[in-house]
């Protein structure tokens, strides 16, 4: 795996990826970022990489100039892996934060403790068959965590169906074998 574009372009993952992590392939990640590049400029975006695994979606965002990325994963091995990558990529600590937390709890705590905090771009890639994407979408929507014009990107099992909030527009719905990628834009003004 490697960083596709930006100031970290072509940097390769060093170290062993924990066995239980199913990283987003370079091909799928490149497709997602090419699509997003048609809609947004990554400069200074506030990004969340939830159920981050290796953190590659967040690192790709940092490479492209996002202002800050919050990496969230409940597994200690993932957290160690993300921290070691950030160190090996020499990313400034003001560009990211790492949270060992359950995805839904992180979102609820953000709403409660930082009610003005919003994200411009949220990535999530929960374990397949976890079936909590709709709960996540509801928390993000009800808590107003996604800025107007912001994007929610979900990678999930192709059998899971996301119920789209009325104000969100689905702009991508693609399948790659068992993997489905959906990208939604928040149209609230």
List keywords for this structure.
single chain; about 190 residues; alpha/beta; Rossmann fold; seven-stranded mixed beta sheet; 5 helices; about 25% strand; globular
Structure explained in plain terms:
- It contains five helices and seven strands.
- The termini are far apart.
- The protein has helices at residues 26-37, 56-63, 76-88, 103-113, 133-142; strands at residues 46-50, 68-73, 96-100, 119-124, 146-157, 168-176, 179-186.
- It has a single domain (26-186), classed as 3-Layer(aba) Sandwich (Rossmann fold).
- Strand 2 (68-73), helix 3 (76-88) and strand 3 form a beta-alpha-beta unit.
- The protein is an alpha/beta fold and 189 residues long.
- The protein is globular and about 40 Å long.
- The longest helix is centred in the middle third of the chain and has 13 residues, at 76-88.
- The relative contact order is 0.16.
- The chain has a seven-stranded mixed sheet with strand order 3-2-1-4-5-7-6, with helices on both faces.
Secondary-structure blueprint of this entry?
Elements: H1 26-37, E1 46-50, H2 56-63, E2 68-73, H3 76-88, E3 96-100, H4 103-113, E4 119-124, H5 133-142, E5 146-157, E6 168-176, E7 179-186
Parallel strand pairs: 1-2, 1-4, 2-3, 4-5
Antiparallel strand pairs: 5-7, 6-7
Short description:
With 189 residues, the chain is of the alpha/beta class. It has helices at residues 26-37, 56-63, 76-88, 103-113, 133-142; strands at 46-50, 68-73, 96-100, 119-124, 146-157, 168-176, 179-186.
């Amino acid at each position: 795996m490697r960083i596709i574009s930006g100031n970290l372009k072509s940097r390769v993952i060093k170290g062993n990826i924990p066995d239980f992590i199913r990283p987003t392939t370079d091909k799928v990640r490149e497709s997602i970022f090419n699509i997003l590049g048609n809609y947004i400029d990554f400069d200074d975006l506030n990004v969340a990489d939830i159920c981050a695994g290796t953190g590659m979606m967040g690192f790709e965002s940092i490479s492209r100039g996002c202002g800050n990325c919050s990496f969230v994963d409940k597994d200690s091995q993932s957290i160690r892996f993300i921290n070691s990558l950030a160190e090996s990529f020499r990313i400034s600590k003001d560009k990211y934060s790492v949270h060992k937390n359950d995805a839904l709890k992180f979102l609820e705590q953000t709403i409660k403790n930082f009610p003005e905090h919003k994200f411009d771009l949220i990535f999530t890639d929960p374990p397949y068959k976890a079936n909590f994407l709709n709960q996540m979408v509801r928390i993000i929507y009800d808590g107003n965590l996604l800025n107007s014009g912001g994007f929610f990107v979900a990678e999930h099992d192709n059998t899971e169906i996301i119920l789209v909030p009325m104000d969100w527009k689905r702009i991508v719905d693609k399948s790659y074998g068992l993997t489905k990628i959906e990208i939604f834009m928040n149209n609230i003004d």
